[in-house]
């Protein structure tokens, strides 16, 4: 069974949408990545850091989903990372109301011995030096996937370039791809990003889907058109978890199979947004997933006949 | 051979993009629709109106592409409809600098006898009453497709509702779908639009592709990610022309075949934007089209295995 190592935040979120408001609920990139990747038949572990205020029931939720949490450091007397955000009416944009790094400010990840040989490593959105320190502890993974955001481009450019040079896949959104490269065309942006290191570039376009680039090849996975987007929090990380989870289970990191991984990522993300926080991802069974993937097939597959003569 | 009747503007455009500027060049919705639909093996005609200042060479371009122009009225002493626009740096939005209706102000379309029995009618973007007058002249078409824009929603709502009630397919962009229905979700918007008349709703999302809705079914055709978008003028009409042209040639207006039509529309639109105005569409051969459609297949087709048990 393939091993997937996930490093990222495990946190408290306080979310406000046009539909309601939460107090501190379970959140964090690694949480969403793990709840998504654990749908697959793999051995996944989270490396992270929480405070003493982090409830046992949240830890039990992770282990109950088959996620190894030996790598989650619990800091006595510490407070868990906290993020608070408010979504605009169309749910496409959000404002960060508050960020309290708390224990995350001193996060020095320690990869458990048994996961140093993980085949796939998922570096969730974190300070690039923290991501690099994880890479220094693992032994020759087959695939390293990096997620990042514009904050690190603005504040830690050189460190970001260092870690980008060492990964196989980068996942960012379209605005970030443009900021990273100065290119408006996503095709040109992906090409420039590949020169920085990653052979595969996933550009997430939120409700507009995701693009996968590799040299001259490109694949597009749509986002499922939805009647209601309830809470978009964690959708991007859920996408990433589906992507790496699928690759880990199928043990095939070819471009052809990455297409499927991107489709699975998009499918799982479509569940995440149906309810507040992690609620939908906590109870998601395989029949539901299969049914959703069938919707993705119907959404995109066609059968045009090609012909070089006038009678198309 | 199926007949396609197109009504819309044939015009002069003056276009400014970050890459250059034109004086009066050939434009107009019906021009782009026709140059696109005439790639297919069909009998297509344009009903429109131009002034005496409209050059014979432009008319020859249309007839040279097999388009019947008996229905294009040439007004002695009149001036052709003129539009001037300027695109923003990212080419996604544009400002209209000038619109001179000229002869279009008195357009009373006369459908040629031989096209009154056209199987497919494409009502290009025009005053709803003008679109309605064309419907009154045709004899029981199999499919009527309507394009419209926010201008008519703002200024001629009741007339727009009248014509919408009589068509089978409506094509609009996402902003317009939201304005028309007050819904943000495109799924909900399409549902409301279907209640107004059209059984099929095509929502164009520009660089983000197009959605096709019919009852509970939905299909998505991406826009091809491009290195360079040179001039987006006419892309939407080229899309429409590919859509109706493909349906006319294949003589199959089922939802399944409409998926293919939307893909063809998207494929042809991807050529349109490569050069200024109609230049790319004027010389487009079938080998190029087939090659581009193959790119669309590679862009979207995947083969995930679905399984109800843990071993996905």
Automatic annotation (TrEMBL), chains A, B:
A GO-annotated cellular component: cytosol
GO function terms (MF aspect): kinase activity
Name of protein: Sugar kinase
Keywords: Kinase, Transferase
Domain of life: Bacteria
Keyword Phosphoprotein: no
Membrane-crossing residue ranges in chain numbering: none
SUPFAM superfamilies according to UniProt: Ribokinase-like
Segments forming domain Carbohydrate kinase PfkB: 21-280
Kinase is among the record's keywords: yes
